[in-house]
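User: I'm curious whether this sequence folds into something compact or stays loose and floppy. Could you predict its structure so I can see for myself?
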Amino acid sequence: MNMTEVGTVAVLDADPDLGQLLAPGQVEDARRHLRVRRHVVEPGAWDGERLSNAGPDHLGLLVIDGLVTRELVVADNVSAELLGPGDIVRPWHTGGPEHLVPFEIRWTVVERTEFGVLDRHFAALLARYPLVNAMVVDRMAERAQRLAVLQAVSQLNGVDRRLLTLFWHLAERWGRVTSSGVVIPVPMPHRVLAQLVGARRPTVSSALRRLAESGELARDLNGSWRLTGAPVGMPTEAAARIVRMRRFRVPPRADAAEPARPVPLDGRIGEVHDALAALRADSTRRRREFAELAEQTREIMDQIQARRDERVSRR
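Assistant: Here's the prediction. I'll summarize afterward.
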């Protein structure tokens, strides 16, 4: 699918936040000089590799409007990233060493998307506006942070919990508070959701059905998603105590000739006891569940053996 050029636009008009660090007197000057070409891509598969001749001196493409997914395929697994207004992407490869783990990148335009081309001319002009350049770098750091959050979401226990955490994560960026809940106007098929949370599509469909039945998540007729209740994903107090314990380390010795001094617990003995009690309770619960599972397994094996004996006796 080709990109269609539709004129130029001032970057600070398309994305005013990029100029938020500028002094009031600098904004108009930056708006006048920092202009970029606008390109539009219609929904569907998009071959970003066609831009491979852009070169490493091009900063990338600024998403002005629309929605794009970037899918990374490794073996038979696909993970996805959701990109929207404000994101800066570089859909071309700039070369480098051979990959020991082969992968494929696929781009899909979910909604009609408008890009601003941050080409080499724009990159040269940024030298005059270092505060705008700092915001561009900040945008790339924000994208890396969101990728880290998505990786953490995909490792949560339970697909229901992953989906709820994902939607609250999306709500932080695109959500709109209404009288009936937080609406996320991002139409995403079950396939994309599955790639975002690291699960299979049928599993995600079942989880979405359960969340709809419990009233925690619903899909409106226009394709938007609606959240009710409180945000999820924050660690429990018991988990927080354990994390604090893990971070507790003996500091390095100031002088190797001096004997190591014991590190005071600073009043954390109670926290250690509470954390150990929580671990013991969790261990007891897991042993009980394992015993129940073992008993169920023995019953099933007895039933299988009884059926085998019955078939043998009939012969």
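Summary: The radius of gyration is 27 Å. The mean pLDDT is 82.
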